[in-house]
Amino acid sequence: MPAKKPDEPFWKAVDSLVQESEIVIDRPKGSYHPRYPEIVYPVDYGYLKNTSSMNGGGIDIWRGAGVPGQVDAIICTVDLYKKDSEIKILIGCNSAEKKLIMDFHNRGLMKGLLTTDREIKYFLYLFSV
Whole-model pTM? Predict the structure, then answer.
């Protein structure tokens, strides 16, 4: 019997959260940020209904064109302007969509760290606009 990976309970918890929650897409691909009209969402963006995150809203998600409901990554963000951090769950996102999402979260004073492919593979993608 193969050894249990140390990150397996984490991914099972994230899977449960997504499976037990309704996904609400409030910023579809191509839509503009409500307060910053120069920011365009490159992939569907929303939240898990009836969940809570650090900002008081639902847990943020990015939904790609892949398998519906398949959690394939998370991104942890730090926003130096707002002085906060959050996680966002990526659902059904392919490699190209993950790159777009990383670009989105690594502009100006916001930085993101992506954990992907259900393994603990971290990379910091720092980039300034």
Answer: 0.85
